[in-house]
């Protein structure tokens, strides 16, 4: 019998529940920077090495209120929390720790503490309710939790229904001497517990392929899945897209809206800036108004947010001259999470002078794998393959299709899908490739052009119609503030195109606007693609990260 590979995990839950080898993707480590040592703890690489190299005084985490933690400050707090996890909460390497909180320095410190202690961080969206938290607790068999006190109620309800969640500490009071009793069984405040322990912790000597994150999808399908990522995956994500595409620097100041529980937010606001010694402005609430205020106030230079946010901010961003071309601080803008409409890209550039860096990533892949930099952006194209990855467009039989032909996007690289005990692994990974669920075509120059989610292709009277293309056309009309398109069953045509439209301020919903929008779409794209049905809504269902939930529109 062959010797079992080294692991620092005492609790073997994650390793025991990895997909079988035949269902895992092929992993590629073709870049020199993707050759990892036999022992690897990503907290050591991202945080401790920065301090050890003499850069501990560099700003790391900031808030608009003036708080600023250096890398050394973050390390000391993470080390104290790691001691609390091990000495007071009984954490052993491999245990899962639920993290619940908005984007705050203490949330980041808690994340690093879990990684340092050899635990597995399971960060959750702040908007999740007790029922949704319970599904995660049950599936990941979570035994420990660190939670912002402002979000304690739903977690306490979930804990009542899941007694396997044994140890909980609440943070967010900011007071070291606050006992923080939550009234439900002797849980004490994390800040007070931190003061009982030294500001130095010996990180667990984890293996590169020890799981350190279970990232749950944000629920566009209504059935969340947990994806297991290793320490090496975190470092691989830092070595590929940010280094080769984003090309930010140590003096950059990052800011953004995605929650840290979303891998887009974890990468863009924590992992990537720290991998280059930069700093991040953390906003517990990051709507368009908060971003527009904080960007100039904090001198932010790199922005991560969703397409809907860019569209909502464009005019005011131009009026405030926040872009570097107009004399402001902001110089790089990144969009991901859902397709970037061409109209939104053009609108943002018109008002700020900044070309948005578009990209497609996935929770299953950890972060972005197809993208472009500002100099190589093309209208309507997501970009080219990020160094370290391979991508192609496949037909339904798993064969590459010629340039210009729509097919299924398939990707492989140093990261990939490992669902936690989920039968959907077999659908996501085939023949070593990760199938993202996106329909794409690739042009003769290797640029990938998004068409739709594969389940968002509408077949109407024999025509294939991509829902996002119709959405893009509608968004060009000044009366449309937001929209979504689905296929609705129809006896004669199989399906018809149905649009849900949020009217812009000053425009009245009604039959006249329906006719106007239908005529506009006919003149903008092929006439057969126009929406035969239009329903007006005050808002559209979206996740906390801004992703459109079309399944809710289909459900009625």
Provide a brief overview of the structure.
Helix 5 crosses helix 6 and helix 8 (231-239) packs across helix 10 (263-275). The strands form six sheets. Strands 2-1-10-9-11-12-13-14-15 form a nine-stranded mixed beta sheet, sandwiched between helices. Strands 16, 17, 18, 19 and 20 form a five-stranded antiparallel beta sheet that branches. A four-stranded parallel beta sheet has the order 4-3-5-6, sandwiched between helices.
How would you describe this structure in keywords?
GMP Synthetase, Chain A, domain 3, 5-stranded antiparallel sheet, Rossmann fold, 25 strands, 556 residues, 9-stranded mixed sheet, alpha/beta, single chain
């Amino acid at each position: 019998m062959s010797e079992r590979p080294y692991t620092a995990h005492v609790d073997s839950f994650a390793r025991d529940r990895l997909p079988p080898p035949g269902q895992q993707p092929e992993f590629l480590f073709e870049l020199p920077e993707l050759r990892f040592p036999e022992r690897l703890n990503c907290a050591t690489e991202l945080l401790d090495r920065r301090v050890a190299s003499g850069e501990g005084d560099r700003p790391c985490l900031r808030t608009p209120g003036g708080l600023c933690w250096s890398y050394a400050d973050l390390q000391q707090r993470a080390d104290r929390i790691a001691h609390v996890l091990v000495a007071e909460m009984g954490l052993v390497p491999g245990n899962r720790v639920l993290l619940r909180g908005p984007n705050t320095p203490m949330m980041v410190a808690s994340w690093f503490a879990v990684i340092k202690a050899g635990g597995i961080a399971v960060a959750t969206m702040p908007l999740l309710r007790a029922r949704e938290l319970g599904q995660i607790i049950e599936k990941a068999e979570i035994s420990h939790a660190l939670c912002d006190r402002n979000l304690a109620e739903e977690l306490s309800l979930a804990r009542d229904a899941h007694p396997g969640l044994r140890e909980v500490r609440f943070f967010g009071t900011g007071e070291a001497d606050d006992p923080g009793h939550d009234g439900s069984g002797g849980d004490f405040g994390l800040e007070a517990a931190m003061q009982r322990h030294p500001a130095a912790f010996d990180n667990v000597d984890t293996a590169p392929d020890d799981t350190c994150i279970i990232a749950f999808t944000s629920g566009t399908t209504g059935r969340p899945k947990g994806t297991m990522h290793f320490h090496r995956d975190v470092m691989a994500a830092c070595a590929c897209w940010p280094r080769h595409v984003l090309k930010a620097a140590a003096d950059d100041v990052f800011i953004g809206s995605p929650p840290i529980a979303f891998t887009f937010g974890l990468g863009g606001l924590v992992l990537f800036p720290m991998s280059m010694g930069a700093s991040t402005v953390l906003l517990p609430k990051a709507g368009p108004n908060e971003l527009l205020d904080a960007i100039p106030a904090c001198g932010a230079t790199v922005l991560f947010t969703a397409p809907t946010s860019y569209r909502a901010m464009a005019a005011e961003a131009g009026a405030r001259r926040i872009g570097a071309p107009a004399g402001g601080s902001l110089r790089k803008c990144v969009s991901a999470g859902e397709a970037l409409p061409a109209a939104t890209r053009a609108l943002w550039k018109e008002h700020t002078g900044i070309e948005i860096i578009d990209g497609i990533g996935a929770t299953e892949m950890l972060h972005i794998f197809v993208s472009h930099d500002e100099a190589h952006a093309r209208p309507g194209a997501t970009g080219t393959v990020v160094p370290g990855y391979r991508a192609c467009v496949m037909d339904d039989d798993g064969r590459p299709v010629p340039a210009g032909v729509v097919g299924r996007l398939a990707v492989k690289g140093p990261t990939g899908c490992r669902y936690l005990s989920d039968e959907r692994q077999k659908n996501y990974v085939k023949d070593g490739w990760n199938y993202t669920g996106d329909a794409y075509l690739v042009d003769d120059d290797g640029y990938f052009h998004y068409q739709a989610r594969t389940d968002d292709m509408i077949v109407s009277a024999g025509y294939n119609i991509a829902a996002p293309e119709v959405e893009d056309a509608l968004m060009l009309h000044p009366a449309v503030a937001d929209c979504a398109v689905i296929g609705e069953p129809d006896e004669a045509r199989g399906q018809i195109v149905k649009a849900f439209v949020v009217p812009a301020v000053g425009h009245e919903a009604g039959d006249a606007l329906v006719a106007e929008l239908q005529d506009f779409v006919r003149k903008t794209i092929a006439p057969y693609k126009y929406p035969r049905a239009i329903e007006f809504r005050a808002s559209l269902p979206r996740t906390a990260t801004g992703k459109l939930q079309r399944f809710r529109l289909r459900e009625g």
